Amino acid sequence: MSVDPHVLVLAGGLSYEREVSLRSGRRVADALRASGIDVTMHDADAALLPLLQADPPDAVVIALHGATGEDGSLRGVLDLCGIPYVGCDARASRLAWDKPSAKAVLRESGIPTPDWVALPHDRFSELGAVAVLDRIVSRLDLPLMVKPAQGGSGLGGTVVRSSADLPAAMVGCFAYHATALVERYVNGMDVAVSVVDQGSGPEALPAVEIVPRDGVYDYAARYTAGLTTWHVPARLDPAVAAHVAEVAVAAHRALGLRDLSRVDLIVDEDGTPHVLEVNVSPGMTETSLLPLAVQASGLEFGKLWATLTERAAARADAAGR
């Protein structure tokens, strides 16, 4: 980066996850400032492009959650402006953001992921809701996990243990996205593995075991203190923990990701990990999983972010920005 590096942290947005994004952005900004880097926080609004033109930063940190930060569109605009950013490129972001597409790539790569069906609202109505739901239960069996095909923070997600509860779960899911992802529910340990690349290739940080008080890791459980207990590292047999780490890195590579990601998995009773989804803009709040893994690994949060922003700036310099 330049002699006096300047990093722009983008946070906020208009998604359901705006408040979480602001908290993530503030934490990253504070950590970078503690490392001696000049930081500005800004929203992704109409004033952003003029700001980038008037005072181009050395690198951008995208702390936006939801579509704005994860569907690839903002990354594409930053590419058009020649502004480097931490994280994967627009193509990989689009792929990871759409859960059915990402799961298809994982399955093709030999990475275990629960069986699923993606059902747009229009097809759900046109084909007859009752007939479609009966077929889903017959094919995937109960229990099921219903969640939006695009989205994060557990919003719109429901565990369905009875056929009678499936219609309501679908309606709740469609409130957040026009396509529902219905997948076979896997019983086991809920873990998250953060993957970071500081220059020597992607490496898995210690897995975080997630134990929500009420059994479901929904929005409230993720961001309300006291509703979830975390164990870092996860209480896994060492051989299973090593395999989980390998699978997480394989998922990161299969989706073409860069710099950092968070891979959410279920480890079943046989010790087999099943990848649920991969997040390219993971939360950075005080109850978020990547910071917990960073702390457990012995890395310094601010130093890690300084390294990631330096690498982003170096990529732009190498490309002749």
UniProtKB/TrEMBL annotation:
GO biological processes: cell wall organization; peptidoglycan biosynthetic process; regulation of cell shape
Cross-referenced Pfam families: Dala_Dala_lig_C, Dala_Dala_lig_N
InterPro entries assigned: ATP-grasp, ATP_grasp_subdomain_1, D_ala_D_ala, Dala_Dala_lig_C, Dala_Dala_lig_N, PreATP-grasp_dom_sf
PROSITE patterns: ATP_GRASP
Compartment(s) of residence: Cytoplasm
Highest rank taxon of the organism: Bacteria
Any one GO MF annotation of this record: metal ion binding
Residue positions binding Mg(2+) 1: D264, E277
Function: Cell wall formation.
Protein name per the record: D-alanine--D-alanine ligase
Species per Swiss-Prot/TrEMBL record: Mangrovihabitans endophyticus
